[in-house]
Amino acid sequence: MWPILKQTTWLFCAQIFTRIISFFYTIYLARTLGISDFGLFTVAMVYFSLGSSISDFGFNRFFIREVARDSKKMEELLFNVSFLRLMATTGMFLFFAAILYLFDPDRVRTNLILIGVMAVIPQSVGQTLDAVFVALRRLQVSAVSLLIVSLTTATVGFVLVTKGYGPFGAITALLIGQVAYLLVLGLFLEKWHAKIISSIKLSVLKKITLGALPYGILGVMGLLYFRLDTILLSYMRGNYETGIYGAAYRFLEAIVFIPIAYSSALFPVLSKLHDGHIDQVKKLYISSVKLMGILGLLVVLGYILILPWLIRYFLPGYIEALNIVIILSLAIPFMFLHVPAVQVLFSTDKYLKWVIGLSFITLGFNLVANLLFIPVYGLYAAAWITTLSEALSFLVFFIFVKIKILDKT
Questions:
Q1: Exposed, middle or buried: residue 293 (CB in 10 Å: 0-12, 13-18, 19+)?
Q2: Pairing with 276, which of 8, 39, 183, 285 sits 20 to 30 Å away (CA)?
Q3: 19-53 pLDDT, tens per residue?
Q4: Rounded distance, CA 121 to CA 125, Å?
């Protein structure tokens, strides 16, 4: 447990600084852009996140798992995974460009989205390089690179938006920040004397694709699960409600770094323990649930006590977001408690088909509920459905882990 917490500390500290930067940068954007333009920027960011998930398609998680088990595989897998991610990103960009220009009449929104998707190209290679350090448990490198990308994006965004470039300035800053992310990680690998360029082998590409496929399906499903409401709000209720909801959702996103940081340290450890140390997996899961549960409750209390004051003081034009923030904060404990179960199941091939099936259930509920209620109740429906979906997801996966792992002797 201690090595995991030690590694988590690096990312945790970096994420605290990046979230502080992001908090003030988001407030600046929300106040400067106005609700409608901030809504446009929010939708572009959702497509960026969706594109990031598609370009990864489980390749990084597969890479981390394999290298954590055997570091000798690193050089061969690194180049082939990078190649696959670049191909996926290029294909995705062309697909989005064709679909959006054909069917979306809002050309401003379309152009913003495509710049956001373009930012996935440098990010996809950067994340693959970052996976090397995650697999080898050198999360301090990940921490430094996160800080640099956050500072670069916020600084460039502040300059461009101040000069009057509006949401285009903000989304261009995202692209520049991802280029900086790639360059920094490339310099770290060069300093480490790691061999990046290798040969492309069809057999290796096939192995990576088949091994990553379950993670990829789950990654895209997970992103849709989290972002579907914002996309539907944009097309069904317009930029104004999307801007209000986007501002509220940013506060929820601000604490996701806690479970993400813990997951990054937990996954490689669980990948090794699954090979003949199932008792240790159980102990680690139980202790992780306790830790995440306590942290989740503390964060909720902080949100309910502090955020209303922050919104009234810093974002008086977004006062409608207050109730949405309170509703979304109820999802936090379930988000935190859900993390250990997901990492336990992801760290072995044994349960991936089950995880995909269970994820279809939770995504199905989320999709149907949003389609039914967003047209009528708008952003309030989106907020309540997010909270209920998180509760359902935690319940479903906890029961599965209990039956398949915890109750077995």
A1: middle
A2: 8
A3: 788 878 888 888 888 888 888 888 888 888 878 77
A4: 7
